[in-house]
Protein backbone atom coordinates (compact mmCIF):
# COMPACT_ATOMS: atom_id res chain seq x y z
CA UNK A 1 0.00 0.00 0.00
CA UNK A 2 1.44 3.34 -1.09
CA UNK A 3 0.62 6.18 1.30
CA UNK A 4 2.93 8.64 -0.43
CA UNK A 5 5.98 10.42 0.86
CA UNK A 6 4.13 13.10 2.83
CA UNK A 7 0.96 13.20 4.90
CA UNK A 8 -0.60 16.67 4.92
CA UNK A 9 -1.17 17.89 8.49
CA UNK A 10 -4.79 18.84 9.15
CA UNK A 11 -5.36 22.44 10.14
CA UNK A 12 -8.29 24.88 9.99
CA UNK A 13 -8.60 26.76 6.70
CA UNK A 14 -7.78 30.48 6.88
CA UNK A 15 -10.66 32.88 7.42
CA UNK A 16 -11.18 35.71 4.92
CA UNK A 17 -13.57 38.11 6.67
CA UNK A 18 -13.07 41.81 7.26
CA UNK A 19 -12.56 42.96 10.86
CA UNK A 20 -14.98 44.62 13.27
CA UNK A 21 -13.89 46.32 16.49
CA UNK A 22 -15.98 46.28 19.66
CA UNK A 23 -14.91 48.69 22.40
CA UNK A 24 -15.55 49.65 25.97
CA UNK A 25 -13.13 52.20 27.39
CA UNK A 26 -9.63 50.91 26.81
CA UNK A 27 -10.89 47.36 26.18
CA UNK A 28 -10.80 46.48 22.48
CA UNK A 29 -12.17 43.20 21.10
CA UNK A 30 -11.47 42.65 17.42
CA UNK A 31 -13.69 40.22 15.52
CA UNK A 32 -12.78 38.79 12.12
CA UNK A 33 -9.76 39.36 9.93
CA UNK A 34 -6.61 38.17 11.68
CA UNK A 35 -8.21 38.28 15.16
CA UNK A 36 -8.63 35.08 17.16
CA UNK A 37 -12.03 33.42 17.03
CA UNK A 38 -13.85 35.10 19.93
CA UNK A 39 -15.98 33.48 22.63
CA UNK A 40 -19.34 34.97 23.59
CA UNK A 41 -22.07 34.13 26.06
CA UNK A 42 -25.38 35.58 27.25
CA UNK A 43 -26.91 36.16 30.67
CA UNK A 44 -30.16 34.50 31.69
CA UNK A 45 -30.92 36.96 34.47
CA UNK A 46 -33.58 39.67 34.37
CA UNK A 47 -31.62 42.74 33.27
CA UNK A 48 -33.81 44.89 35.52
CA UNK A 49 -31.89 43.20 38.35
CA UNK A 50 -28.71 45.10 37.56
CA UNK A 51 -26.75 43.71 40.52
CA UNK A 52 -27.65 40.08 39.81
CA UNK A 53 -26.93 40.57 36.12
CA UNK A 54 -23.60 42.25 36.86
CA UNK A 55 -22.58 39.29 39.02
CA UNK A 56 -23.40 36.85 36.22
CA UNK A 57 -21.63 38.99 33.61
CA UNK A 58 -18.55 39.00 35.85
CA UNK A 59 -18.71 35.19 36.20
CA UNK A 60 -18.99 34.76 32.43
CA UNK A 61 -16.13 37.19 31.78
CA UNK A 62 -13.91 35.45 34.31
CA UNK A 63 -14.72 32.11 32.65
CA UNK A 64 -13.47 33.54 29.35
CA UNK A 65 -16.41 35.19 27.59
CA UNK A 66 -14.97 38.10 25.62
CA UNK A 67 -18.36 39.70 24.98
CA UNK A 68 -21.50 39.20 27.04
CA UNK A 69 -24.99 39.71 25.64
CA UNK A 70 -27.84 40.91 27.83
CA UNK A 71 -31.56 41.08 27.18
CA UNK A 72 -32.92 44.60 26.65
CA UNK A 73 -36.63 44.02 26.26
CA UNK A 74 -38.44 46.55 28.48
CA UNK A 75 -38.07 50.17 29.58
CA UNK A 76 -36.98 48.86 32.98
CA UNK A 77 -34.23 46.78 31.40
CA UNK A 78 -33.06 49.69 29.24
CA UNK A 79 -32.98 51.98 32.28
CA UNK A 80 -30.92 49.42 34.20
CA UNK A 81 -28.20 49.02 31.56
CA UNK A 82 -26.16 52.16 32.49
CA UNK A 83 -26.27 51.16 36.17
CA UNK A 84 -25.22 47.61 35.24
CA UNK A 85 -22.30 49.00 33.23
CA UNK A 86 -21.33 51.22 36.16
CA UNK A 87 -21.32 48.25 38.55
CA UNK A 88 -19.10 46.24 36.20
CA UNK A 89 -16.67 49.12 35.82
CA UNK A 90 -16.46 49.45 39.60
CA UNK A 91 -15.58 45.75 39.82
CA UNK A 92 -12.89 46.17 37.16
CA UNK A 93 -14.85 44.09 34.62
CA UNK A 94 -14.44 45.83 31.27
CA UNK A 95 -16.02 43.14 29.09
CA UNK A 96 -18.13 44.78 26.33
CA UNK A 97 -21.89 44.40 26.66
CA UNK A 98 -24.12 43.46 23.73
CA UNK A 99 -27.76 44.53 23.84
CA UNK A 100 -30.20 41.92 22.54
CA UNK A 101 -33.19 43.72 20.98
CA UNK A 102 -36.47 42.40 19.61
CA UNK A 103 -39.71 44.14 18.62
CA UNK A 104 -39.18 47.44 20.49
CA UNK A 105 -35.45 48.09 20.18
CA UNK A 106 -35.98 51.26 18.13
CA UNK A 107 -37.97 52.83 20.97
CA UNK A 108 -35.69 51.68 23.76
CA UNK A 109 -32.52 52.97 22.08
CA UNK A 110 -34.17 56.31 21.30
CA UNK A 111 -35.90 56.76 24.68
CA UNK A 112 -32.92 55.63 26.79
CA UNK A 113 -29.81 57.25 25.27
CA UNK A 114 -27.69 56.27 28.29
CA UNK A 115 -28.50 52.64 27.49
CA UNK A 116 -27.47 53.14 23.87
CA UNK A 117 -24.16 54.63 25.05
CA UNK A 118 -23.43 51.96 27.67
CA UNK A 119 -23.77 49.10 25.19
CA UNK A 120 -20.82 48.32 22.93
CA UNK A 121 -22.78 46.37 20.35
CA UNK A 122 -26.41 45.90 19.32
CA UNK A 123 -27.96 42.63 18.20
CA UNK A 124 -30.82 43.32 15.77
CA UNK A 125 -33.07 40.54 14.48
CA UNK A 126 -34.53 41.70 11.14
CA UNK A 127 -37.44 39.30 11.61
CA UNK A 128 -38.55 41.11 14.76
CA UNK A 129 -38.32 44.83 13.95
CA UNK A 130 -41.82 45.33 12.60
CA UNK A 131 -43.93 44.43 9.59
CA UNK A 132 -44.64 46.25 6.35
CA UNK A 133 -43.57 49.88 6.29
CA UNK A 134 -42.64 49.72 9.97
CA UNK A 135 -39.91 47.18 9.25
CA UNK A 136 -37.63 49.48 7.27
CA UNK A 137 -38.36 52.50 9.43
CA UNK A 138 -37.73 50.82 12.76
CA UNK A 139 -34.69 48.93 11.52
CA UNK A 140 -33.37 52.23 10.17
CA UNK A 141 -33.85 53.98 13.51
CA UNK A 142 -31.71 51.41 15.29
CA UNK A 143 -29.00 51.46 12.65
CA UNK A 144 -28.84 55.26 12.60
CA UNK A 145 -28.29 55.32 16.37
CA UNK A 146 -25.54 52.71 16.04
CA UNK A 147 -23.86 54.72 13.26
CA UNK A 148 -24.04 57.97 15.25
CA UNK A 149 -22.57 56.36 18.38
CA UNK A 150 -20.04 54.26 16.44
CA UNK A 151 -21.43 50.95 17.71
CA UNK A 152 -21.07 47.56 16.07
CA UNK A 153 -24.28 45.80 15.01
CA UNK A 154 -24.86 42.09 14.70
CA UNK A 155 -27.65 41.43 12.25
CA UNK A 156 -28.84 38.16 13.70
CA UNK A 157 -31.30 36.15 11.66
CA UNK A 158 -32.92 33.21 13.42
CA UNK A 159 -34.91 30.57 11.60
CA UNK A 160 -37.48 30.56 14.41
CA UNK A 161 -38.24 34.25 13.84
CA UNK A 162 -37.53 34.63 10.14
CA UNK A 163 -39.14 37.57 8.31
CA UNK A 164 -42.35 35.88 7.19
CA UNK A 165 -43.12 38.47 4.53
CA UNK A 166 -39.75 37.83 2.87
CA UNK A 167 -40.18 34.07 3.13
CA UNK A 168 -43.72 34.21 1.67
CA UNK A 169 -42.56 36.36 -1.25
CA UNK A 170 -39.72 33.96 -2.04
CA UNK A 171 -42.06 30.97 -1.75
CA UNK A 172 -44.46 32.61 -4.20
CA UNK A 173 -41.64 33.30 -6.66
CA UNK A 174 -40.47 29.72 -6.36
CA UNK A 175 -43.96 28.37 -7.02
CA UNK A 176 -44.03 30.18 -10.38
CA UNK A 177 -40.91 28.38 -11.62
CA UNK A 178 -41.17 25.53 -14.09
CA UNK A 179 -39.12 23.41 -11.68
CA UNK A 180 -39.64 24.77 -8.15
CA UNK A 181 -36.97 24.14 -5.55
CA UNK A 182 -37.75 22.18 -2.36
CA UNK A 183 -39.18 24.32 0.48
CA UNK A 184 -36.07 23.70 2.58
CA UNK A 185 -33.92 25.38 -0.08
CA UNK A 186 -36.21 28.41 -0.14
CA UNK A 187 -35.98 28.69 3.64
CA UNK A 188 -32.18 28.57 3.45
CA UNK A 189 -32.16 31.25 0.77
CA UNK A 190 -34.62 33.43 2.71
CA UNK A 191 -32.47 33.32 5.83
CA UNK A 192 -29.36 34.32 3.92
CA UNK A 193 -31.24 36.97 1.92
CA UNK A 194 -32.60 38.49 5.13
CA UNK A 195 -29.08 38.87 6.52
CA UNK A 196 -27.50 40.24 3.35
CA UNK A 197 -30.35 42.61 2.45
CA UNK A 198 -30.33 43.98 5.99
CA UNK A 199 -26.56 44.47 5.88
CA UNK A 200 -26.79 46.36 2.59
CA UNK A 201 -29.55 48.56 3.99
CA UNK A 202 -27.49 49.24 7.11
CA UNK A 203 -24.59 50.38 4.96
CA UNK A 204 -26.91 52.63 2.95
CA UNK A 205 -28.01 54.23 6.23
CA UNK A 206 -24.45 55.11 7.17
CA UNK A 207 -23.11 52.07 9.03
CA UNK A 208 -19.60 51.19 7.90
CA UNK A 209 -19.07 47.63 6.63
CA UNK A 210 -16.58 47.16 9.47
CA UNK A 211 -19.39 47.76 11.96
CA UNK A 212 -21.52 44.86 10.72
CA UNK A 213 -21.44 41.24 11.88
CA UNK A 214 -23.87 38.62 10.53
CA UNK A 215 -25.37 35.47 11.95
CA UNK A 216 -27.93 33.01 10.57
CA UNK A 217 -28.77 30.66 13.41
CA UNK A 218 -30.47 27.31 12.98
CA UNK A 219 -31.27 24.52 15.43
CA UNK A 220 -30.28 21.63 13.15
CA UNK A 221 -26.62 20.74 12.62
CA UNK A 222 -26.84 20.07 8.87
CA UNK A 223 -29.08 23.12 8.37
CA UNK A 224 -26.56 25.36 10.13
CA UNK A 225 -23.65 24.01 8.09
CA UNK A 226 -25.53 24.44 4.81
CA UNK A 227 -26.57 28.03 5.54
CA UNK A 228 -23.19 29.22 6.80
CA UNK A 229 -21.30 27.70 3.89
CA UNK A 230 -23.52 29.64 1.50
CA UNK A 231 -23.36 32.80 3.62
CA UNK A 232 -19.56 32.70 3.75
CA UNK A 233 -19.42 32.40 -0.05
CA UNK A 234 -21.70 35.42 -0.39
CA UNK A 235 -19.99 38.03 1.78
CA UNK A 236 -16.90 38.95 3.78
CA UNK A 237 -18.63 40.29 6.89
CA UNK A 238 -17.44 38.70 10.15
CA UNK A 239 -19.70 35.78 11.03
CA UNK A 240 -21.03 34.83 14.45
CA UNK A 241 -21.61 31.07 14.80
CA UNK A 242 -24.06 29.36 17.08
CA UNK A 243 -26.49 26.46 17.02
CA UNK A 244 -29.64 28.01 18.45
CA UNK A 245 -31.75 26.04 20.91
CA UNK A 246 -29.01 23.42 21.06
CA UNK A 247 -30.47 21.86 24.21
CA UNK A 248 -28.99 20.81 27.51
CA UNK A 249 -26.31 18.44 28.72
CA UNK A 250 -24.69 15.98 26.36
CA UNK A 251 -27.13 16.63 23.52
CA UNK A 252 -26.50 20.37 23.41
CA UNK A 253 -22.75 20.01 23.84
CA UNK A 254 -22.36 17.37 21.13
CA UNK A 255 -24.64 19.10 18.63
CA UNK A 256 -22.94 22.49 19.07
CA UNK A 257 -19.47 20.98 18.93
CA UNK A 258 -20.26 19.02 15.78
CA UNK A 259 -21.66 21.99 13.86
CA UNK A 260 -19.14 24.59 15.01
CA UNK A 261 -16.11 22.35 14.59
CA UNK A 262 -16.97 21.53 10.97
CA UNK A 263 -17.49 25.18 10.05
CA UNK A 264 -14.42 26.45 11.93
CA UNK A 265 -12.26 23.79 10.29
CA UNK A 266 -13.45 25.15 6.93
CA UNK A 267 -12.42 28.68 7.90
CA UNK A 268 -15.97 29.85 8.57
CA UNK A 269 -16.73 31.78 11.74
CA UNK A 270 -15.14 34.65 13.64
CA UNK A 271 -16.95 34.51 16.96
CA UNK A 272 -18.92 31.71 18.59
CA UNK A 273 -21.47 31.00 21.26
CA UNK A 274 -22.46 27.58 22.54
CA UNK A 275 -26.13 27.99 23.48
CA UNK A 276 -26.63 25.43 26.25
CA UNK A 277 -29.72 25.14 28.40
CA UNK A 278 -28.25 24.84 31.92
CA UNK A 279 -29.17 21.71 33.80
CA UNK A 280 -30.58 22.29 37.31
CA UNK A 281 -27.79 23.70 39.44
CA UNK A 282 -25.36 24.00 36.54
CA UNK A 283 -23.45 27.25 36.15
CA UNK A 284 -24.13 29.44 33.14
CA UNK A 285 -20.38 29.44 32.57
CA UNK A 286 -20.49 25.86 31.27
CA UNK A 287 -21.26 27.10 27.76
CA UNK A 288 -18.10 29.25 27.87
CA UNK A 289 -16.04 26.24 28.95
CA UNK A 290 -17.39 24.21 26.00
CA UNK A 291 -16.77 27.02 23.50
CA UNK A 292 -13.17 27.39 24.63
CA UNK A 293 -12.62 23.63 24.49
CA UNK A 294 -13.87 23.57 20.88
CA UNK A 295 -11.38 26.25 19.85
CA UNK A 296 -8.53 24.65 21.76
CA UNK A 297 -9.27 21.18 20.38
CA UNK A 298 -9.09 22.57 16.83
CA UNK A 299 -5.80 24.32 17.58
CA UNK A 300 -7.36 27.72 16.91
CA UNK A 301 -6.63 29.07 20.40
CA UNK A 302 -4.98 27.92 23.61
CA UNK A 303 -6.62 28.75 26.93
CA UNK A 304 -5.67 26.09 29.48
CA UNK A 305 -2.99 23.44 29.91
CA UNK A 306 -4.22 20.17 28.45
CA UNK A 307 -4.47 17.05 30.58
CA UNK A 308 -4.26 13.76 28.68
CA UNK A 309 -5.86 10.87 30.57
CA UNK A 310 -6.76 7.37 29.42
CA UNK A 311 -10.41 6.27 29.61
CA UNK A 312 -9.68 3.25 31.78
CA UNK A 313 -10.12 -0.45 31.07
CA UNK A 314 -9.86 -3.84 32.78
CA UNK A 315 -6.20 -3.16 33.49
CA UNK A 316 -7.09 -0.14 35.61
CA UNK A 317 -9.70 -1.18 38.13
CA UNK A 318 -8.34 1.45 40.52
CA UNK A 319 -9.84 4.92 40.18
CA UNK A 320 -6.64 6.59 41.34
CA UNK A 321 -5.67 7.86 37.90
CA UNK A 322 -9.19 9.18 37.27
CA UNK A 323 -9.17 11.05 40.57
CA UNK A 324 -5.68 12.41 39.94
CA UNK A 325 -6.53 13.51 36.39
CA UNK A 326 -9.57 15.43 37.63
CA UNK A 327 -7.62 16.88 40.54
CA UNK A 328 -4.86 18.13 38.24
CA UNK A 329 -7.29 19.44 35.61
CA UNK A 330 -9.38 21.30 38.20
CA UNK A 331 -6.26 22.71 39.80
CA UNK A 332 -4.82 23.97 36.51
CA UNK A 333 -8.10 25.65 35.53
CA UNK A 334 -8.45 27.30 38.93
CA UNK A 335 -4.90 28.66 38.82
CA UNK A 336 -5.00 29.97 35.24
CA UNK A 337 -6.24 33.50 36.06
CA UNK A 338 -3.14 33.93 38.25
CA UNK A 339 -0.70 32.00 36.11
CA UNK A 340 -1.47 33.69 32.80
CA UNK A 341 -0.19 36.95 34.26
CA UNK A 342 2.71 35.39 36.13
CA UNK A 343 3.85 32.69 33.70
CA UNK A 344 3.53 33.66 30.02
CA UNK A 345 2.96 30.61 27.83
CA UNK A 346 1.69 28.35 30.62
CA UNK A 347 -1.59 27.82 28.74
CA UNK A 348 0.33 25.60 26.31
CA UNK A 349 1.45 23.16 29.02
CA UNK A 350 0.71 19.47 28.34
CA UNK A 351 0.21 17.10 31.26
CA UNK A 352 -0.43 13.34 31.04
CA UNK A 353 -2.04 11.25 33.78
CA UNK A 354 -2.15 7.64 32.61
CA UNK A 355 -3.49 4.53 34.28
CA UNK A 356 -1.22 1.63 33.33
CA UNK A 357 1.95 0.54 31.57
CA UNK A 358 0.42 -0.03 28.10
CA UNK A 359 0.23 3.56 26.87
CA UNK A 360 1.26 5.34 30.05
CA UNK A 361 5.00 5.77 29.47
CA UNK A 362 4.55 6.68 25.79
CA UNK A 363 1.88 9.33 26.43
CA UNK A 364 3.84 10.70 29.38
CA UNK A 365 6.95 11.12 27.20
CA UNK A 366 4.93 13.15 24.68
CA UNK A 367 3.71 15.48 27.42
CA UNK A 368 5.73 18.21 29.12
CA UNK A 369 5.23 16.40 32.39
CA UNK A 370 3.43 13.11 32.83
CA UNK A 371 2.88 10.25 35.22
CA UNK A 372 2.13 6.60 34.52
CA UNK A 373 0.25 5.11 37.46
CA UNK A 374 0.34 1.40 38.21
CA UNK A 375 -2.47 -0.67 36.76
CA UNK A 376 -4.13 -3.66 38.40
CA UNK A 377 -1.48 -6.15 39.49
CA UNK A 378 1.44 -3.89 38.53
CA UNK A 379 4.16 -2.87 40.93
CA UNK A 380 3.07 0.08 43.12
CA UNK A 381 5.37 2.56 41.40
CA UNK A 382 4.59 5.59 39.21
CA UNK A 383 7.34 6.82 36.89
CA UNK A 384 7.27 10.56 36.14
CA UNK A 385 8.47 11.86 32.77
CA UNK A 386 9.64 15.45 32.35
CA UNK A 387 10.36 16.89 28.90
CA UNK A 388 10.34 13.41 27.40
CA UNK A 389 12.75 11.82 29.87
CA UNK A 390 12.09 9.66 32.91
CA UNK A 391 12.94 11.90 35.87
CA UNK A 392 11.94 9.92 38.95
CA UNK A 393 9.52 7.33 40.31
CA UNK A 394 6.88 8.11 42.91
CA UNK A 395 5.78 5.50 45.46
CA UNK A 396 3.57 5.28 48.50
CA UNK A 397 0.25 6.76 49.56
CA UNK A 398 1.05 10.35 48.56
CA UNK A 399 1.62 9.86 44.81
CA UNK A 400 -1.19 12.27 43.90
CA UNK A 401 -0.05 15.15 46.09
CA UNK A 402 3.61 14.53 45.24
CA UNK A 403 2.85 14.75 41.51
CA UNK A 404 0.88 17.97 41.94
CA UNK A 405 3.89 19.50 43.70
CA UNK A 406 6.06 18.45 40.75
CA UNK A 407 3.62 20.08 38.32
CA UNK A 408 3.66 23.31 40.32
CA UNK A 409 7.45 23.32 40.44
CA UNK A 410 7.71 22.55 36.73
CA UNK A 411 5.43 25.47 35.85
CA UNK A 412 7.33 27.87 38.08
CA UNK A 413 10.75 26.87 36.78
CA UNK A 414 9.84 26.53 33.11
CA UNK A 415 7.52 29.50 32.68
CA UNK A 416 8.76 31.77 35.45
CA UNK A 417 11.08 34.70 34.82
CA UNK A 418 14.14 32.78 35.96
CA UNK A 419 13.65 30.00 33.35
CA UNK A 420 15.74 27.67 35.49
CA UNK A 421 15.91 23.94 34.67
CA UNK A 422 13.70 21.77 36.84
CA UNK A 423 15.49 20.22 39.79
CA UNK A 424 13.46 17.14 40.61
CA UNK A 425 15.13 16.42 43.91
CA UNK A 426 14.58 19.87 45.38
UniProtKB/TrEMBL annotation:
Co-factor binding details: Binds 1 [4Fe-4S] cluster.
Residues spanning the signal sequence: none
Entry-linked Gene3D superfamilies: Dihydropteroate synthase-like (3.20.20.20), Sulfite Reductase Hemoprotein, domain 1 (3.30.413.10)
InterPro entries associated with the record: Dihydropteroate_synth-like_sf, IspG_bac, IspG_bac-typ, IspG_C, IspG_TIM, NO2/SO3_Rdtase_4Fe4S_sf
Pfam families: GcpE, GcpE_C
Family stated for the protein in its record: Belongs to the IspG family.
NCBIfam families the UniProt entry points to: ispG_gcpE, PRK00366.1
Domain IspG TIM-barrel per the UniProt entry, residue ranges: 29-291
Protein's name according to its UniProt entry: 4-hydroxy-3-methylbut-2-en-1-yl diphosphate synthase (flavodoxin)
Role, per record: Converts 2C-methyl-D-erythritol 2,4-cyclodiphosphate (ME-2,4cPP) into 1-hydroxy-2-methyl-2-(E)-butenyl 4-diphosphate.
UniProt pathway: Isoprenoid biosynthesis; isopentenyl diphosphate biosynthesis via DXP pathway; isopentenyl diphosphate from 1-deoxy-D-xylulose 5-phosphate: step 5/6
GO BP terms in the entry: isopentenyl diphosphate biosynthetic process, methylerythritol 4-phosphate pathway; terpenoid biosynthetic process
Molecular function terms from GO: 4 iron, 4 sulfur cluster binding; 4-hydroxy-3-methylbut-2-en-1-yl diphosphate synthase activity (ferredoxin); 4-hydroxy-3-methylbut-2-enyl-diphosphate synthase activity (flavodoxin); iron ion binding
Cofactor(s) needed by this chain: [4Fe-4S] cluster
Gene: ispG
